[in-house]
Design brief:
61% of the residues lie in helices and 0% in strands. The protein has 10 helices and no strands.
């Protein structure tokens, strides 16, 4: 799902490093055509054989890790004339295009979500709510529309229930303090307490 993409894609890339196919997935290593005949005894063909094996492993892991019909279909269609059994780089690019939009409409949507986010109930864990804000902050930063930590702090302070005033009023006074400034981390700890 789009809402899971950020976390899932980072986890998959971490796994891809461990399984040694990250460079193929990201297009840093070129995979030879399926029709190319490679000699396992040849020292010049060994890297090409490894690239082909890495592509196969990456493509298979992408297929196996996506029960979502839309994502599965994107991966399933990521085949080329050169790689008819699956092109992991193409699959990864198509997934990114689908689930990690970089359009101005995405910037507007994320900014609106951030601006409208309020902690409306004491039943909601404030730390969970702040993490959601930090996720939006990270996405906007990737899109070159950064939200500063001070802006995030001000948003948190202004959008929690009044019952948190005993925490937010002192924190508000320390934003930008030279010796002991309020940070998101310290505010989370105070709200948690």
């Amino acid at each position: 799902k789009s809402s899971d993409w950020r976390m899932w894609s980072k986890q998959f890339l971490a796994m891809s490093s461990k399984k040694k196919y990250r460079d193929v997935l990201l297009g840093k290593t070129t995979v030879p055509k399926a029709s190319d005949t490679l000699d396992p005894a040849s020292t010049t063909d060994k890297p090409k054989i490894l690239a082909r094996e890495a592509n196969d492993a990456a493509y298979h892991d992408l297929i196996l890790s996506n029960p979502n019909q839309i994502a599965f279909n994107i991966i399933d269609k990521a085949v080329t004339t050169d790689l008819p059994e699956g092109d992991s780089k193409k699959a990864w690019e198509e997934l990114n295009d689908k689930f990690e939009s970089k359009t101005s409409a995405t910037v507007v949507q994320l900014t609106q979500e951030f601006n409208e986010a309020k902690l409306k109930s004491l039943k909601i864990n404030p730390e969970d709510w702040i993490v959601e804000l930090e996720i939006i902050q990270a996405r906007l930063d990737q899109l070159s529309f950064p939200i500063t930590e001070k802006h995030l702090l001000i948003h948190i302070i202004c959008n929690v229930p009044k019952e948190y005033d005993s925490v937010t009023e002192p924190a508000e006074k320390l934003i930008g303090d030279a010796t002991n400034p309020t940070t998101v981390k310290s505010l989370k700890a105070e709200l948690r307490a």
